[in-house]
Structure formats: structure tokens, C-alpha cells
Amino acid sequence: MIKGLGASFGYALGKVFVLEEENIIEKITIKNVKKEIEKFEKAIDSCKLDLKDLIDTTKLTIGLEESKIFEAHLMMLEDPEFIDKSKELISSKKVNSAWAVSSVSKSFIEIFESIDDSYLKERAIDIKDVTKRLVDKLLDRNNEIYNRLGVIIVANDLAPSDTAKMDINKILGFITRNGGVTSHSAIVARTKGIPAIVGLGDDIENIKNGDIIAFDGNSGQIFINPSEEIKNKFIRLNDEYLEKKEELKTFIGKKTISKDGKVVEIGCNIGSPKDLEYVLDNDGEGIGLYRSEFLFMDRKKFPNEEEQFLSYKTVLEKMNGKPVVIRTLDVGGDKNISYIKIPKEDNPFLGYRAIRYCLKNPDIFKVQIRALLRASNYGNLKIMFPMISSIGEIRQAKTIIEECKKELENEGIILKNKYEVGIMIEIPSAAIISDLLAKEVDFFSIGTNDLIQYTSAVDRMNQTISELYTPFHPAVLRLIKLIIENGHKNNIWVGMCGSVSGNPELIPLLLGMGLDEFSMNPSKVLNSRKIISKTDAGFINEKIDEILNISDAFELRNTLKNIL
Ligand code: PEP
Ligand code: MG
């Protein structure tokens, strides 16, 4: 048995498909040379269009100089030597175009790599890049892998957009070498209900393509080529899990109310309007976090105002008057968006990201704000800014809202609904001055995924020190209490959209602290409603000081278990 970090609940038993980063390209003999050459030409044209888009966005977002890299890539796709040699190989050897392209490019790469000039050596990297783009296109790689029937995907890393592409009816689960439980791939997996283990480290080498494995997405345990006994155990556990899911359905349509009558709200975290299906299935009472950055991922340029407007409007309309918190673009950290070129940083989690990026790029930010304001006419919108660390950022962001409002008014667009403006509290500086920040906004939503990492100085993605990343650290819990108190003193509501809000061990404590709104992955809503129905909020409230005076996280967790 090997063990990684359980990132998304559920049991998986099935065959492994190892995702190679550099897939070896199979050499296939083809019958119809003319058709293969047409396919090759079509792929070249399509890559050229992609590159032209990339050049435009690069010019806009980074600069002219950087866009020249892609101009060079474009030129390579127009290089007659490269094209003719590839075509010649396809027809003389009757081979598939992907193999021909990679073999021609290999010879070019070798030439450049052998030249004793660092500038020319670098060109080999560009050729590799263009070749990959072309080969991916020819093999239609992007979609194929994620829709294989009945496999467990094993990979070094998965980008959130990769996880988003997975078809839950086909993929049994995934395991990655890197990543932490709050990485965005893990979050997407939880939303979709795909069992997942991350941060397996070098143990991943023990898993081979075609192996049968059984894994538990909660404990992180993986059994390679398990015995019949273990297989049967997993089948039984899975059945029990499905049974429990059935039982929870009795909570559908019920209010979320504690044993002593405190009513709270359970909203859901989503990454796209597609996730609404899970929200409605699980009876979410609203959207507590729409991570709008997903709309910006897996594409080649910024979504324009109309595209954004339609996405936000869809969510608001489908939620039919229930609250919808849409967070503005939270790029950076592990949320990489290919066409937003953030210069390489030593500490991307502490760097140029989220609201910092938006405030420095008002043209991009304004497109989103205008789309949001227009969408506000279709429901109960709450705009939320991520990564706020100081009051100035809120004021600047609010000024931009006012500017956009004026622009829209001048264009004759009337905003008929009231909307709220709030912030995520996920940075300790914001938590500490939450009494002051509360005067500027309509609500707070506590982002524990980041609040834990910044409070404890523990990278949320680093599995080597993952045991230090804990919500049970009294510093984190004290900050949460402080934020809720400061919000309430200033008459604003306080929610939580980080993973802690769906943690069964902490829900009672949060309820006792007076949290007004919980927002979580849709799959957790019904179980959380059940836990709340069994909790006496008043009783927990009286115990809070005692709990928060325990200095050790491990001890605190045990005490909490005993009290409940
Ligand atoms: C958080 O930090 O808790 C949060 C909800 O935001 P994200 O996970 O998207 O950084
Ligand atoms: Mg965050």
C-alpha cells in the first residue's frame, strides 16, 4: 500500500492510464497520402490562427517584444523547408503526419543544439514548442485523454483546466505526484465528485500503465494490483458510500437550521455555469463563490464583455433570485492562465496576482466589472474581490465599479437591481484590520485555503510540509473568530468559502462562532446540513474560549472531537 493526500472523496477501482508528459508518437503506416497531407495542412492553418490570437493577446497584456517570440513560431510554421520536408516524409514513407513532423523537427533541433551559440541553442526550445503545438493538434490530444472509459488517470501534475475536462461518467478518479488538497485541480475534482489523490511524490513510480489499483480519495491509500479481498472491500465501501448518499437526500428541500434554531445558509462553490447541475442536485441555497477565473482558463485570449456577461447572467438566472457571489479574476499562484503572462516570480503566491493584477490592468478589470454590473439585472448578485490586503485596494476597486456604472448609464443601460460588494478575507493583514475593512463593504467571505497558508507560512501546494497546513492551528481559528466578530459589529454578514466551511469536524465550531453563510463543494451540502441540524450552536458558543486557548493544533482537534 502507498499513500498520498486524499483530495476528493470516493472510492475508485480500475485500470491505470499513465499520462506521459511527452507522449511517444506512434509511427503508423497510412494508406491515403493525399488525405494525410490535407490533414497536415489543416493543422498548420489552425495552429497559425491560434498563434495569431496569442500574438494579439501578448501584445495587449505583456508587450510587443514578448509577442515576437510567437511571431517567430508563426514563421516556423511558414518555413518551406520544414513544411516540404514533413510532406516529403509523409508521402515517401507513407507515415502519419504527427510522426513525420516530430521526426523532421528532431533533425532541426539537433542542428540548433549542436551550435556553440547560446542564442541559437535557445531556438531549439522554440522548435520544440511549435512542434508540440502541431503534434497536439494532429493527434487531437486535448480531449481524447480525459474521456477514456473507465480508467484512473495517473500524472505528475494536472492543470485545473485538465480536471475540468474530465468526464465524470468515464474517468474513475485521478492520482498526481504533485499538488496539495487545496490545489485547484483538487477543488475541481471535489466539485465534480471525482475521487482523487494528490501529492503522492516519488511513490507514483510504483504505478504502471495498465495496473489495476484501488484507492480511497479520503484517506489517500492506494493498493496496486490488489488481492480479491481488497477489491471486494472496496466494492463494499463504495456501496455503503452510495447508500449514505441516498440517506442524505432526505435533507433536500429542508432549511439549514441548528438543533437550537439558528438558521444559516449553505451555498456552493462553482467554477462554471456547468457546475450548477451539481448545485441544484444537492440543493445549494445559493452560490457562495463563483471562481470566475475558470472562465478565463483553457482558451487563447480574454473572454470579451459579452461572453462574460452571458456566463454571469446564466448563473444568476438559473439561481432564480438566490444569492450569487461572483469573485473577480483571481489569477496567479497555481492559477495559471496561458495568455496572461505574469513574469516568473520566486514566490508567485506572494506576488502579482488576483486584485493586484486587476488593479494594475484596469482595461481588463473593467471588462469584467461591466459584464458583472450588466448581469446584476438578472438576479441577486454579490461582487467579491479576492486577495484584499489593504483598504486602498477596496477603495480603488470600488472606484472602478463607479466608473463602469457611469459608463453604462451613459450608454443607456439601467441597473435596476441592488447588488452587494464584498471581499474575501484570506490574508492575515485583512483579517487583523477586518474591523476597519468591514466599514467599506457589504460582506466578508473567509477564504481559509489561503488564510491558512499565509497565516502559517505553509505553501498550500507543498506536500512535504502538508502536516503543517492545518485549520486546527489556534492562530487560524482565532483569526476566523475575529473576522466574524468584526463583521457582525459592523452589521455585515460573514460567510466562508474556503474548504474549512465544509469540514465536518469544524462546522459546529463555525456555527458556534456565528458564521452566517457556509459555501462549499456541492457534494458536501447535504452532509453539512445534517451536521448543523444536530448541533447546538449556543452550547458550542460557550465553549469557544476554552477551545481557542488550546495551544496545540493536534490537541485542539482532539478536544473538539470530545466536546461534540
Ligand atoms: C480560499 O483561498 O479559501 C478560496 C476560497 O479561494 P481559492 O481557493 O480560489 O484561492
Ligand atoms: Mg484564495
From TrEMBL:
Residues 246-535 form the PEP-utilising enzyme C-terminal domain. It catalyses: L-histidyl-[protein] + phosphoenolpyruvate = N(pros)-phospho-L-histidyl-[protein] + pyruvate. Belongs to the PEP-utilizing enzyme family. The keyword Metal-binding applies. Residues 150-220 form the PEP-utilising enzyme mobile domain. This is Phosphoenolpyruvate-protein phosphotransferase. General (non sugar-specific) component of the phosphoenolpyruvate-dependent sugar phosphotransferase system (sugar PTS). This major carbohydrate active-transport system catalyzes the phosphorylation of incoming sugar substrates concomitantly with their translocation across the cell membrane. Enzyme I transfers the phosphoryl group from phosphoenolpyruvate (PEP) to the phosphoryl carrier protein (HPr). GO terms for biological process: phosphoenolpyruvate-dependent sugar phosphotransferase system. It is found in: Cytoplasm. It comes from the Bacteria. The keyword Lipoprotein does not apply. Mg(2+) binds at E426, D450. The lineage of its organism: Bacteria, Bacillati, Bacillota, Clostridia, Helicovermis. Keywords: Coiled coil, Cytoplasm, Kinase, Magnesium, Metal-binding, Phosphotransferase system, Sugar transport, Transferase, Transport. Residues 3-123 form the Phosphotransferase system enzyme I N-terminal domain. GO terms for molecular function: kinase activity; metal ion binding; phosphoenolpyruvate-protein phosphotransferase activity. It comes from Helicovermis profundi. GO terms for cellular component: cytoplasm.
